[in-house]
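User: Quick one: structure for sequence A, then sequence B.

Assistant: Sequence A:
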Amino acid sequence: MKPSPITIVEALKIKLMQFPKLVDSLQNKESSFLSNLENWMREIELIFKNNNISSVSEIAGLRSKIVAPLFSDSQNRSARKRQIQVASECLYDIQSTVLAIVNPYEIKIYEAREIVSQLLQILSQSGSLKFNNTDFQGFVNQIWTVFSTHEQLRPSTAKILTLIPQMDAVRLIAEEINLEDFSG
């Protein structure tokens, strides 16, 4: 099954919102900076791995750069100080790698959301469906069926499916619907 772009974006945005705290931790020379960064990177790697995103190797590669000073023969500076130096140099590349994954997904989701909103508006104006205040998910599924089978709406539905999987399209319907537009 195709991974959900909405779920991927949500998970990665949570991680990106934590990034400024990591930078602050570096700036404030907190002793927990390296372990926090490593945990954060491992969580990013897990999200990438679970969603079959090959950039997992890029994050792991950057993590390996941060770990490498532990194995250096040079004794000029402590390994920890060298690790912090390398980590500070890698921070921008780490967040850039994550953003490079998030941004294209966000564009597709935004475009799909716009189409869903337009279709919902068309459907509500037609008055052909009414919400009976009982089964929200069933109503959302019914809307998707109308989108998928109605001759004039089907091309837009096909466009949505080129952007995101069906389960995300149904989720967008649930998020975008204004039930007042479908009350009778």
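Sequence B:
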Amino acid sequence: MNQTEIGTFISSCRKEKRIPLLYSSTLFIAILVCLICNLAIDGIVSWSLIPASAIIFTWAIFFPVLYLKKRGIIISFISLSMFTLPFLFLISHFTETKEVFTIGTATAVPSIVFLWVVTAIFHFLGKKRISTAAGISFLLSIPFLFTINIILSNMIAEPLLDIWDIFSALLLLTAAGISFLLQKKNS
């Protein structure tokens, strides 16, 4: 490499790292603002722990994608899988509301499993059959929707079905059909 190519490479590397650095700095400033406001208003750190926890959780999930681009997606999914339950526990503890953890965990665990199932579908079907992967994912979303409804119905006496659930299922079925038609058309 000549000197010009090295300079261009270094410049592009610096540009690539600006967005993750700006993102991290902005979130850090947000945490500081919350802590300062909480201390100024109450004289102790109390409610600011809730937004601080949420900001750290958000950073852990999105930073890998910003820093590593496509290679960071799986790392972000791993972060989401690892940190969701501890985050729910912290929020439950800070708000002194145990339902945040119990209901949150009951819906988060199947949601994370569903995320990994969809990820596996897209991985195994590959780039050439993205529409098929999307169609299968849309179809699988329908039983997932009803699974979450059953969980919530058992925990908080939420109705098992309402008009919006049926409407959502029909939209997902339509999206699946369109995805399969697009795949057939592109084959």
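The helical segments are 3-42, 49-68, 73-95, 98-125, 130-156, 163-186. DSSP finds six helices and no strands in the chain.

User: Thanks, that's what I needed.
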